[in-house]
Amino acid sequence: MENYAKLEKVGEGTYGVVYKARDINTGRIVALKKIRLEAEDEGVPSTAIREISLLKELKDDNVVALLDIVHADSKLYLVFEFLDMDLKRYMETVNSKNGNRGLDKQLIKKFTYQLLAGLRYCHGHRILHRDLKTDTDENLKLADFGLARAFGIPLRTYTHEVVTLWYRSPEVLLGSRHYSTAIDMWSVGCIVAEMVMHGQPLFPGDSEIDQIFKIFRLLGTPNEEIWPGVSQLPDYKETFPRWSAVELSQTVRGIDAQGLDLIAFDIRYCTPYFCQARSHPPILQRSRNLSSQSDGHMAALTVAPLFYHIRCFNRIILSNELSLNRLVASYCLLLFYWSANVYLYDAAFFYLIVLVMHQLYGNCVTKPE
To answer: Where is the Protein kinase domain positioned along the sequence (predicted)?
Structure first.
């Protein structure tokens, strides 16, 4: 650690302590994340190994940069670029200065764009973040990859004890171990709503059951009709209180219709893994800075429809539905050929492929609208 001088402690969590420090050689201010090793009988914690391996792969303007790894005195330090404050603290600072009026609307759009850009990059590298929250200046970066992990096709069984409680999706709260990138999108909806609500969390539960009940009170208690497969989740109870859904606009105020649509899209029970075509442009279609855009461009933030005429499987991937992943993989292969400008001119041949997959994997293809 002779190359770094600790300046002050800036945070502490389950997995370690974070210090503000200075690189003695360059003078650069960095963040040192000290990983606790004392209680580990088997060496470096798996969360640290996972964070290191993922961040060494991820190089993006909207993902925090891992600069160095130092092992000294039975301690492991991860050296990150230093971010002045997290989003939660930034919102609190702004509220204290402007009389609790919250973030500027254009700044909310900019942060939302940067959040989705970073998340798209992670998902494009087959990584679920699994711990999005408002703990991450006017350039927002994803951090805290200790709970992140790689995913593949087919999706594997994961632990359900992930994601900070207020931003945890209902399928995780109900014990699902077969989940997809949509759990991150649920967190995005919660974060955007919190920015709009002047820093007030959308679902501020104080326990898992309180958290799921707060979700039920807003979205309604789910059943098989509105959320197919919910009754098969380990922690779902038929005895749950029955609440009816209420309009999101009654809870999230001060946002235009398109922004409200973005939040509502992300926090639906049945958010698709691949969604059908919607009437607005796909996510990140425009790569310009949203802080200078008009309200109408909020639609550019909505989730991209990758396949327009495929009935997608829901955010929940039940064990008896994993074969659908092979179907999606087949479509991904076809999409790759198209993106590489290798066109399939014979439409009949493509239709034959669809029919074969339809017979192999069940009724998973809808008729074009």
So the answer is: 4-283
